[in-house]
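Tutorial, part two.
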Amino acid sequence: MKVDVMSVRATVLSHFEQVAKEQRKSLAPLSDDLVLVDSGLDSLCLAIIVARLEDALGVDPFNAADGDFPVTLGDFIQLYANAAR
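Running the prediction step on this input gives:
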């Protein structure tokens, strides 16, 4: 199954916004250069996002990731886009 990068991006951003709202976190403006630790979300929020993205996109890039954990939101999105190919 081939997934469009823009579709992956929209899905990831949607989950960031939804989890921030549910967890009552103040989310920084979402941009590719946003450093994840500066996003306003904690590790629990990111874990929820990863779990939901696995359900939504059908991939878990961290299960097969050979590199480091993504630093920026752009890196995070690209990790999912690459895994969905």
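Residues 34 and 49 are 16 Å apart (CA to CA). In part three we will examine how such features are distributed along the chain.
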